[in-house]
Amino acid sequence: MQKILCFFVRDFRYFRWGFAHFTRRFARFCVSCLALFVLFAELAKTDTPKPQAKPQTKTQPKAPQAKSTQKPKSTKSPQKNPAKTSTKAKQSTKSKTPAKSATKSKTTQKSQKAKKYTPKPLPNEKEVQDIASKAKVINYGEPNLARLKRALEGKNELKILVFGDSHIAGDTLTHQWRKTIMLPNSVGFIYPVFPTYHQNLLVKTISKDFEVRNSRIDAYDDYPFGGVIARAKKENASVKITLKFPPEHQDFLIRIVFKSPNNTLGAFLISDSSGQSYRLQAKEANMWEISQDFALRFPIEIKSLLPNATLGGYFIYQDSKNIADTSRTSKSRLSKLEKLPINEQKESELDSSEEASEESSQDKDDSQNPPKSQNPQKFSYANLTNLPKNTNNLIAHIGSNGARSDIWRKWNQKALSDTLCAFRYDFIVLSYGSNDALVMPLDTKAFEQNYSSLIALVRKCNEGAAILLVGPPKVITKPRKAKNYRIAPYFVAVRESVKKVAKKEGVLYFDMHEFMEDSGGKDAWVAKSLSKKDVHLTPFGYSLVADGIAYGLHKVLNIQTKESKEIKESREAKESRETKENIPPTKTNKSEQKPELNTPDESSAPQEIWQSKIE
């Protein structure tokens, strides 16, 4: 009996387990069937409106023409269905039309933007000369005008340095002086690696594994002169420097501003295109130093031998006379500047000077090389010959976007004075104020004190240099939520303060705002493609400001102007062609009247103010 009960209990357990297993499987099957049923139902719903969405009103009128016995059925069915379908069709069309209208609105907005930025006719040669001739440079007692006049009139070397903000950082204004005031054969001081939107149109730098820092943006407690550094992230970080000069004019002297974390090992390895190599070692660790002058053939390459080795800039020039020796690396200790043996170098590392000149001639910069169709006589320093090699004719700048008049206080004052005293400049220009007018609130006393202190520092290192202060143009801003541009609230205060400092320090003064107002004002310059809607000008506008300052200087210095031979011949040929074609001389062709924006046309540039140094 006991065996029977055990057998029954065991069979009951198996039966219960099997029944539970069967019910679970059956429940899952039912759920899956329901899910499939719902899915097919929804698909059927979505499929049914598609044939109904098509309007059947156009095809149904053909039904009466066909002979059919069921006329009432055909008449009733189309009356009920089209009403529903027509409403749905209307709704579908309404839902589709906004997408089309949105696309149309986008295209119209793009077309409107394109219309707003279409190139406008630039002023011709006469208009440019008339505008530039109205410029005024005021002399508030500058004592070094005689030396500046001798440097401009004669064949003596002329060295110009320009401090400034974004009006100077693009190198358009200073490059216009290179084409009118003199013919440069040197570069002067440049940044170790140019930050974004900064350039020197005579130099091209390509860096690898270097971290670039700017004193206006990045926090750093030891900036040198200029406020831009390039710190090596690791060993073998490199900078390649190419100059846009003729192939036969690639031999220069160079001095390097650098800092090394270690004074027992070499910091940088310098190699040029002729095969020379030098190892540069610091005398003191973590101190800014200016090296000796190296006689190198460009292009050159500078490689870091230590991580965190830092570059602060370069002096590139022709002749070392009248240049102060502020280097901490003494010439007697050759171990600090050890010359390495000439090794075979790969062609990929250093290109020849001929290839560099080809790159510089093919480099289509906006403000240097206009298109051939607009300017058949393209201006390029790579095409010039007989450049002098015993003088230093140069125009250097340290413009920085967003810079204010107190930016130099962020730099190492010892390195600033040493670097500023390395060259004996003849003419120094200070152009700050546009960004100071945006400070809320503005302390005019601090602004004037910063400007006066900078002038005193410049006078200390360059006692014989003439100084010019440039007042800012109309400072216009556009707040985020505003629709139109507005004049900065402290623009008038900054303009008056710059003029006050010029009177107090006894220097030259040029008011850019007054120069623009005398020729029609901001709106007229925008209409002539000389200015943008904000505070900045176009490249052609900056070149016109440079010509205006040059005209004002020649009035103050009583220098006679002389036409360039090329400009004179082109003008005479143009007048003779117009007389033959019976065209009034005031009119110009469309091709001459509408060059591209951001590419000032050399043929329409004003007359050269001083005769070129090279005849």
Structure description:
- By secondary structure, the chain is of the alpha+beta class.
- It has two domains: 119-182 and 393-615, SGNH hydrolase (Rossmann fold); 185-341, Jelly Rolls (Sandwich), CATH 2.60.120.1360.
- 38% of the residues lie in helices and 16% in strands.
- The strands form four sheets. Strands 3, 5, 6, 8, 11, 12 and 14 form a seven-stranded antiparallel beta sheet that branches. A six-stranded mixed beta sheet has the order 1-21-18-17-2-16, with helices on both faces. It has a six-stranded antiparallel beta sheet with strand order 4-7-13-9-10-15, covered by helices on one side.
- Helix 4 (125-133) crosses helix 14 and helix 7 packs across helix 14.
- It is elongated.
Helix share of residues? Answer: 25-40%
CATH superfamily of the largest domain: SGNH hydrolase
CATH architecture of the largest domain: 3-Layer(aba) Sandwich
Q: Given this structure, which CATH class of the largest domain is correct?
A: Alpha Beta
How far is the first residue's CA from the last residue's CA?
Answer: 136 Å
- CA radius of gyration is 38 Å
How many β-strand stretches? 21
- The CATH topology assignment of the largest domain is Rossmann fold
User: What kind of oligomer do you see?
Assistant: single chain
Give the biggest sheet.
7 strands, antiparallel
Number of domains: 2
Number of helices: 16
